[in-house]
Task: structure prediction
Amino acid sequence: MATKNSPGNFDCYANAAPDEPMFILLGRDPVAPLLIDLWRTLRAQLGGSSKEQLDESGACARACEEWARKLGKAEKLANVDEIWKRLEMDDWLRGAPR
Result:
């Protein structure tokens, strides 16, 4: 599991090419656990990710959820889950900024 002080085995910052775009999710963001789980699901389907990388991303999602709960964001986590359940993926993709 990566943190600011301990980047972990899959350090995206160190592995990024110069000027390669990246987007970092923080544990305090109540959307982070869902997005990490979605990333993990998609990468598992696409192939090319090791079991270790997929397992670490699952642990990261759970750690982010725990971190957000410690910050008093349990209600926001629940709201994210509810919103996700209501979304239809096709509608979401059509409306997503690109």
User: Anything to note?
Assistant: The mean pLDDT is 86. The radius of gyration is 15 Å.
